[in-house]
Amino acid sequence: MLNSVRVMSVAAMFLLLGWTVSANPRPQERDQSKHDEKQQQDKPARQDQQQGGKQQGHQEQQPQARGQQQQQHQQQDNSAKQQQRAKGQQDQQRQQPQQHASGQQDQQRRQQDNSAKQQQRVKGRQDQQRQQRQQQDNSARQQQQVKGQQDQQRQQRQQHDNRSAQQRSPAQVHQQQVAWQGDRARNWKSDHRTWQQRGGYRGYRVPDDRFRASYGQDHGFRFYSLPVMYVGGHRRFQYGGFWFGLVDPWPEYWSANWYDDDDVYVDYYGDGYYLYNRRYPGDRIAISFYLN
User: Fold this and answer.
1) Mean pLDDT computed over 185-197
2) What confidence tens digit (pLDDT) does each residue in 34-55 have?
3) The pLDDT value given to residue 45
4) DSSP H or E segment with residue 273
5) How many other CB atoms are there within 10 angstroms of residue 201's CB atom?
6) What is the pLDDT of residue 202?
7) Are 252 and 245 in contact (CB under 8 A)?
8) pTM above 0.85?
């Protein structure tokens, strides 16, 4: 019975031992189990990490893609700008010949206009010079005609004077000599006075056109051929359609018969009318015109 108890005790101990062994696995099994549990715990973390990495990579790829898109857009914009600049240069190059040609045409037109204006000015000057020459020629012809008429009138007067002198009787010649001797000055420098010294001319003034037609240096005459009228004891002579008389005496050093032999003329000088003797051009005898 004791053996039976021992056998039972041994059996019970083995059973207990086996249970303990089964309850406490071996170190390798425990390490393996821990490793498996760690892998199972780490697996979700790695998955989360992988997913996070993927998300982070995706997020990192998005800015990169956005940068690439922006770069592409910038490149496209630069390309478009370059194309626009190239097109602008082409348009400018295309316009430059046109503008140059237009500028040349404008310059040619201006040159033509300037040339036409110069030609017109030259033609105007030529026409003006031609007109001036014509006027000068006409004036020269008129002067020649006037001079010819004056010469003819002078010749006619001389012929008339010669006939009148021949027709005068000795008694008439003596009478004129006596009359003219009474008008002779004793001292010309002290006896004669200018119209300014007399206070100015107060007689009748001959119209300018009538005066130029009959008086002046180109219209000479001699006294003995003129009609004579006595008014108040003073002689008046008619010439050129007007009557005039000597206010001053004639110089004593003139020839005794100057009124027959010397050519005289009437002219206006400064302040009144004067009688001039061509033989004595420095002397002026004051005269006055009368209306009738």
Assistant:
1) 93
2) 555 555 555 554 555 555 544 5
3) 46
4) strand 272-277
5) 20
6) 92
7) no
8) no
pLDDT in tens, 225-264: 889 888 887 889 999 999 999 999 999 999 988 998 999 9
Cα 150 from chain centre = 51
Cβ neighbours for 221, distance < 8 A, ≥ 6 positions apart: 157, 239, 263, 264, 265
**DSSP H helix total and E strand total for the chain:** 6, 6
Q: What share of residues in the chain are helix, strand, coil (percent, to 5)?
A: 65, 15, 20
Residue 78 CA to its chain's centroid (Å): 53
Query: How far is the CA of 155 from the CAs of 9, 41, 152, 249, 266, in angstroms?
Result: 209, 164, 5, 29, 18
What count of other Cβ atoms lies within 10 Å of the Cβ of residue 274? 20
3-class SS letters over 46-107: HHHHHHHHHHHHHHHHHHHHHHHHHHHHHHHHHHHHHHHHHHHHHHHHHHHHHHHHHHHHHH
CA max distance for the chain:
242
Structure tokens at 221: 């005459």
* Rounded CA separation 274/286 (Å): 5
CA-CA distance, 290 to 206, in Å (whole number)?
Answer: 9
- Domain map of the chain by residue range? 174-290
Torsion over CA: 191, 196, 197, 201 (sign):
positive
- Structure letter (DSSP) for residue 179: H
SS3 for 128?
helix
**Can you say how many angstroms the Cα of residue 43 is from the centroid of all Cα atoms in its chain?**
102
Beta-bridge partner residues of 276? 265
DSSP 202: -
